[in-house]
Amino acid sequence: MDIQKLLKDTTAKAIKTLYSADANLDQITFSTTRKEFVGDFTLVVFPFLKISKQKPEDTAAAIGAFLRDNLAEVADFNVVKGFLNIQLSATFWTEFLNDAIVDERFGMKPKGSSGKTFMVEYSSPNTNKPLHLGHIRNNLYGFSVAQILEANGHNVIKANLVNDRGIHICKSMLAWQKWGNGATPESLGVKGDKLVGDYYVRFDKEYKKQIAELKAQGMSDDDAANKAPIILEAREMLRKWEAGDKDVVDLWKTMNGWVYAGFDVTYKALGISFDKVYYESQTYMLGKSIVMKGLEDGVLFKKDDNSIWIDLTADGLDQKLLLRGDGTSVYMTQDLGTAHQRFEQYKLDELLYVVGNEQIYHFQVLKLVLKKLGFDWSDHITHLSYGMVELPEGKMKSREGTVVDADDLIAEMVKTARETSDELGKLQEFDNDYKSQIYNMVGLGALKYFILKVDPKKTMLFNPKESIDFNGNTGPFIQYTHARICSVLRKAEDSGLKVADKIDAATQLNEKEMQLAKLIFDFPAVVADAGTNYSPALIANHLYSLAKEYNQFYHDCSILKEEDAKVREFRLALSKLTAKVIKTGAALMGIQVPERM
Predict the structure, then answer these.
(1) Which of 358, 413, 467, 481 could form a cystine bridge with 450, CB 3.0-4.6 A?
(2) What residue numbers bound the domain in which 64 lies?
(3) Which tens digit of pLDDT belongs to each residue from 509-530?
(4) Domain boundary residue among 88, 118, 152?
């Protein structure tokens, strides 16, 4: 039952009956009643005063009385100035809980029920370095958004576009040729992405050294940067790659293969997956035909050097290069082509790009160019931008090798989880294999929750030590709450105590039970809001509220030792339902929750 829709429709009838007028349905909005007031839902009546021509208190009282007299679900109401607080009946709450108990996918809509198809592109790494902390936020955000969209009934395609070509990979290749001495991941015993990343850093060090030498000879900054021998060699290697030189292409394939194998290990450790992987080397030419068609149609223009541009100055932007004079593509060319390919192939309703907020302008231009080229589906492209992740020490720099490596961070999180758990004595009774599983689960849960609980658009400061705390707004706190509930349910089963599979309609909920029921009731709406706003943070913070409320309930209300069998069975059922919601919500963020801890 959609109680808010029922309240809204009945309120419209109330206004029609009481004041002989039609209300604007957009003005009838019920929100959850604040904790300091008595009630379940609150209606602000100020928008209706012109119709009622009465005081706010009198208008609220009249509408409240109508709802109470005409809806069995409404038990009572109270008025605080212009706010009408509605109290729902005990029967409503028991019926809701009974429905939730038997709904295995509570909070989630049937798969594909919306009929819409979304593609979420995330990760999109360069093949010249390992994944780092910034990539972790991208991957966790993109994967969670995909999970949430699927929970909202959409068909979802999780996509990755690997940036496997360009000057950046040539820098690593050239450095390996010069100083690698034939080293391989196997010969050095390192992951392939780390090996390639090390040579990218080596290139940058040599490049800076050469620039400094040229500047010391009197050359300007720009000339030194453009004429350093090593950058000229890298550009020549890129030219050979684009020309199909066999030796260069073979080396490119070999080194990229090392990187892909390394990426796969990291993705697996993070619990991240994709349905479709694109490679820039296979897609960078896709947009050329679209650009040429735009030139023929007069939407684009050509400069004297044969480069092709679009003029967006009338739209408050600038002129944008779409194709170089030598016919080679730029990032925008590729994005035009891949967007067209994806909408044509998958008949997408929405295409979401998870990319850092430094690319806001790029995607603003992409949508506008596609619109001017006649592709109306460009209105269904969304850039899910996110803020950078910073550390207490400051920003990371890939070229200088000062990034926080993703694999190292994962290992550090698991290590911290082990140390914290051992210090608190939480896992003493378990064998080493199970302990290892829990350390991994808690470490990754802490990492994912700490990142996803922050509004994605905000720059965030990541402190690993703060993320592993069994008592704060953290992943381990929520995981521990789930394990606590599972422990209660196991003890009940061991003692032969029954868990209610159907709650008696006459059950009266006390204050703590009601607060839990309300948070459980809100969960489907939170999942829906998270899908609309592409925000896992909404789910994360709701789970924290639920876990915190359950622990208060656990502290204040007897469960296993409750003498009234009906009350005990109800509280066990409420506990089981809470655990189900925590597990479902955590999974939408890619977080596992243990049953023993």
Answers:
(1) 467
(2) 3-88
(3) 999 999 999 999 999 999 999 9
(4) 88
